[in-house]
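Box 3.1 A note on notation
Throughout this textbook, protein chains are presented in two layers. The first layer is the amino acid sequence; the second is a token string describing backbone geometry. Keep the layers aligned when reading.
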Amino acid sequence: MCVACLLRVFLEAAINVVSGALTFALFIRVALSWIPGARLPVLGGAVYWSTNSLLAAVRRVVPPIDGTDFSPLAALLLIDAVTFLLLRVLPPII
């Protein structure tokens, strides 16, 4: 077995899992924001904790426009771009 191949596959899977988890957490956070008073103790707390720092950083660059917060959309695009770049940086399997 090729150890470098296994390492690349593991890193690719880890990057995809983290990217997918953040994307899913952002979707849950947006869905919870549409329901008034829907901050569920366990799910809502974990979702808010995992996405708060990312959204706070994005909000510094993309402020709300006319009361509409576009930071989750910008965060999704950022997650996609970083995932794409990280997967392209990995060495190819020969």
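The chain has one domain: 14-89. Residues 2 and 93 are 9 Å apart (CA to CA).
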